[in-house]
């Protein structure tokens, strides 16, 4: 029995740990080998079921030995809000959101969720409540069902099927020789970029976290696929605090709030219309 359960334990550990740092944030590849990089404080508590009220208070950050990347970030996000982060490449969007699952610690300042400082919570109990949908999805050489179930260990077949449908994988599954039991990845059916993204979305539906981080794909998808994925993501965001790292501006027009970053600072924030009218950085990025 011990031997049988081993691989499951390994996967469970992986789901709770996430890969290390920004590279890992974007790529799940290396994740099988990672150890939790931050030890819990001796008095850390299990995070309660979070609502997802997030506050960044005077947050500064520099990578080890490097220049300052985040400079005095103050930001309050209400539970259930969808906030899109935009700005030139290198502005610090990804770095800011990587602080939330604690891939890195702020150099100074504080981040709280529901009033609890991140470092007061046990890391695993925090990360269990944060979903991550990124452009680089880690697929292993098992069936599509196993790849989706990776979102939450112990999910039933019915739950996996439902998540697949929520991620709009249904039509694709119908074309596969063995449906959900088709082997995908290296030795199986190769999935397209759009299909892989939907697997990531299905995993997030299964995980059902109160906080969601979406690292929008930079790779081009055809416009039909893009619309389908956007509608699956919109459905996924409902009822969750959703932070979107936006690489294209078209998809975030309807965000509750757009936060514009430049050189590690928040330089503007608001909704699309008023930001355009303001004629500042966002308006220039949109032009
Ligand atoms: P993009 O839109 O290109 O994804 P971004 O706004 O998300 O950009 P970040 O990825 O947060 O920006 O990068 C901000 C800065 O931090 C960049 O100058 C980048 O080179 C640097 N940086 C990112 N990761 C690391 C790291 N692991 N070590 C050192 N510097 C890093």
Automatic annotation (TrEMBL):
Keywords: ATP-binding, Membrane, Nucleotide-binding, Transmembrane, Transmembrane helix, Transport. GO terms for molecular function: ABC-type oligopeptide transporter activity; ATP binding; ATP hydrolysis activity. Its main location: membrane. Residues 54-285 form the ABC transporter domain. It comes from the Bacteria. It is a multi-pass membrane protein. It is found in: Cell membrane. One of its GO terms (cellular component) is plasma membrane. This is ATP-binding cassette domain-containing protein.
């Amino acid at each position: 029995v011990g031997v049988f359960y081993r691989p499951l334990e390994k996967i469970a550990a992986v789901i709770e740990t996430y890969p290390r740092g920004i590279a890992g944030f974007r790529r799940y590849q290396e994740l099988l080998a990672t150890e939790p990089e931050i030890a819990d404080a001796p008095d850390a508590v299990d995070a309660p079921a979070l609502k997802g009220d997030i506050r960044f208070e005077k947050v500064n950050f520099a990578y080890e030995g490097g220049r300052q990347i985040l400079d005095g970030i103050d930001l309050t996000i209400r539970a259930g809000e969808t906030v899109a982060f935009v700005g030139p490449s290198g502005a610090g969007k990804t770095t800011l959101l990587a602080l939330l699952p604690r891939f890195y610690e702020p150099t100074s300042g504080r981040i709280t969720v529901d009033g609890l400082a991140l470092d007061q919570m046990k890391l695993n109990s925090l990360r269990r409540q944060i979903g991550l949908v990124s452009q680089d999805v880690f697929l292993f050489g098992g069936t599509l069902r196993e790849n989706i179930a990776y979102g939450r260990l112990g999910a039933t077949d019915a739950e996996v099927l439902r998540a697949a449908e929520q991620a709009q994988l249904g039509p694709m599954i119908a074309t596969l020789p063995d449906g959900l039991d088709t082997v995908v990845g290296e030795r199986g059916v190769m999935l397209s970029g759009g299909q892989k993204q939907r697997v990531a979305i299905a995993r997030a539906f299964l995980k059902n976290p109160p906080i969601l981080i979406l690292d929008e794909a930079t790779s081009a998808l055809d416009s039909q696929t893009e619309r389908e994925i956007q509608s699956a993501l919109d459905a996924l965001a409902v009822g969750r605090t959703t932070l979107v790292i936006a690489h294209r501006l078209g998809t975030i027009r309807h965000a509750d709030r757009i936060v514009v970053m430049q050189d590690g600072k928040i330089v503007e924030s608001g909704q699309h219309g008023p930001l355009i009218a303001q004629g500042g950085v966002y308006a220039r990025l949109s032009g």
